[in-house]
Amino acid sequence: MLGNNRPSCLTGEEQDRDYWLERKSKIERIQRGIQQNINDLEKSYFITFMDRVKGVVSEAEYRAVKKDVRKKITYYQKKLKIMNYERKICCDNIEKD
């Protein structure tokens, strides 16, 4: 295993399981970060919406923010979907052992 700093006394099966467990934890960390980005975007959109209701932000600015936020959220949701698939692969490989 490249980049694996585990002792070589582990059997191949144990090394594989360690690899998939590490990979799963990395994917879960990335997923939490992506979800935090989505939450931050939703929060910024809500703040802009409230400013629009108060009349602080113009309709054009509001629409621009809305379009940008939707675009970014869609991007992050696609990334999250890919990460969910990769996590499923890791879980399947862990259970297989």
Task: Outline the structure in words.
By secondary structure, this protein is mainly alpha-helical. The chain has one domain. The protein is built from two helices and no strands. The protein has helices spanning 12-54, 59-96. The longest helix has 43 residues, at 12-54. The two termini are 17 Å apart. The mean pLDDT is 88.
Which helices and strands, and how do they pair?
Layout: H1 12-54, H2 59-96
Helix pairs in contact: 1-2
Helix content: over 70%
Order of helices and strands: HH
Instruction: Please tell me what the overall shape is.
Output: rod-shaped
Low-confidence stretches: none
Number of domains: 1
Strand content: under 5%
Residue-averaged pLDDT = 88
Number of strands: 0
Structural class: mainly alpha
Whole-angstrom Rg = 21 Å
Counting H and I runs of at least 4 residues, what is the number of helices?
2
| Ends distance | 17 Å
**Sheet with most strands:** none
What characteristics describe this protein?
97 residues; mainly alpha; single chain; 0% strand; 2 helices
Task: Tell me briefly what this model is.
This protein is an all-alpha fold and 97 residues long. It has 2 helices and no strands. The protein has one domain (12-96).
